């Protein structure tokens, strides 16, 4: 199971890098890339990968990563997951991923902040 999780995480890193490097041709893609670059600076790379693993795999998210996700904001979270799930290889399960995205958000906002 850990091997599958590692492979899935690696796959999404590669997909993210490819889409970051490939020239952008449409206004929609330019906007998605701008949001992508704006939002990802608000969370650690490990938390970003853990969030992807939760939504697109069977991972778990620590409370500290949940706090980072909430700090990132719902608009960023929604946009980034939608951007990834719109890829041709993932579109068939997009509804499932968007539900997991929303469930993760609800879980994270319900965790009280520690001082």
Automatic annotation (TrEMBL):
The keyword Metal-binding does not apply. Residues 38-109 form the Prolamin-like domain. Keywords: Signal. It comes from the Eukaryota. Pfam families: Prolamin_like. Residues 1-20 form the signal peptide. Transmembrane segments: none annotated. PANTHER family: BIFUNCTIONAL INHIBITOR/LIPID-TRANSFER PROTEIN/SEED STORAGE 2S ALBUMIN SUPERFAMILY PROTEIN-RELATED, BIFUNCTIONAL INHIBITOR_LIPID-TRANSFER PROTEIN_SEED STORAGE 2S ALBUMIN SUPERFAMILY PROTEIN-RELATED. This is Prolamin-like domain-containing protein. It comes from Arabis nemorensis.
């Amino acid at each position: 199971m850990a091997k599958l999780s590692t492979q899935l995480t690696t796959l999404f890193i590669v997909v993210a890098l490819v889409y970051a490097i490939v020239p952008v041709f449409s206004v929609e893609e330019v906007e998605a890339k701008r949001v992508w670059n704006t939002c990802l600076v608000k969370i650690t790379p490990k938390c970003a990968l853990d969030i992807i693993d939760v939504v697109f795999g069977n991972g778990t998210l620590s409370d500290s990563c949940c706090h980072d996700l909430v700090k990132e904001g719902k608009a960023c979270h929604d946009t980034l997951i939608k951007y990834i799930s719109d890829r041709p290889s993932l579109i068939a399960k997009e509804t499932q991923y968007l539900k997991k995205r929303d469930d993760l958000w609800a879980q994270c906002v319900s965790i009280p902040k520690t001082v």
